[in-house]
Amino acid sequence: LEGHTRSVTSVAFSQDGKRVVSGSEDQSVRIWNATTGKQELELDGHTNWVTSVTFSQDGKRVVSGSEDQFVRIWDATTGKQELKLDGHTSYVRSVAFSQDGKRDGKRVVSGSDDQSVRIWNATTGKQELKLDGHTDWVTSVAFSQDGKRVVSGSEDQSVRIWDATTGKQELELDGHTNWVTSVALSQDGKRVISSSKHNFIRSCTCQSP
């Protein structure tokens, strides 16, 4: 898939596998036909590197995060920007839609170099929660399948589990000896997997005591 003019930083499939979204240092988000490789849309609006992109569960929307400090939500059919989420005070490194047992993704989570994790209403663009606890850049965030929990990883070497309703930190998982680069929750929300720059992948249960 050729079209970006600088390094590509993030890619994701739509749930049905028919489309791909990509984000780039060229400041654009692009949507591609996964069968033909043809570019369908170019989503312009970010004013710095795009660092993270993903589709909503139903494939109708795209969320993107950027070093311009904004999270943006786009209509994946028209390419029109629907919302600009303003609150982070440094680069946004990671974004994700909630699933909430539904297909439209009612909430978005973002992680930033400002050391915060934030949860937003994906319909209104309003910030619902700011999750504080990390002491360095937040590099990766994800929702549990039911949307009730958030996992985050950071350059402070920790993985943290949060209650996505109250914003309360449930668990802090230590063990990495270098930056955490990526995190994910299992389908049932009971296990978390994380990777770091010290070449290790760790998996552990994330049940609260």
Task: Describe the fold and architecture.
With 209 residues, this protein is mainly beta. The chain contains no helices and 19 strands. It has strands spanning 8-13, 19-24, 29-33, 39-43, 50-55, 61-66, 71-75, 81-85, 92-97, 107-112, 117-121, 127-131, 138-143, 149-154, 159-163, 169-173, 180-185, 191-196, 201-205. The strands form five sheets. The chain has a four-stranded antiparallel β-sheet with strand order 1-2-3-4, with no helix packed on it. The protein has a four-stranded antiparallel β-sheet with strand order 5-6-7-8, with no helix packed on it. The chain has a four-stranded antiparallel β-sheet with strand order 9-10-11-12, with no helix packed on it.
Poorly predicted tracts of residues: none
User: Please, how many helices?
Assistant: 0
- Summing up helix and strand content along with how strands pair, one would put the structural category as mainly beta
**Any idea what the CATH superfamily of the largest domain is called?**
YVTN repeat-like/Quinoprotein amine dehydrogenase
Name the strands of the widest sheet in spatial order. 1-2-3-4
Give the fraction of residues assigned to helices: under 10%
Number of domains: 2
Look up the CATH topology of the largest domain: Methylamine Dehydrogenase, Chain H
* Order of helical and strand elements: EEEEEEEEEEEEEEEEEEE
> What is the strand tally?
19
CATH architecture of the largest domain: 7 Propeller
The main sheet comes to: 4 strands, antiparallel
Q: In angstroms, what separates the terminal alpha carbons?
A: 47 Å
Percent of residues in beta strands: over 45%
Average pLDDT figure: 93
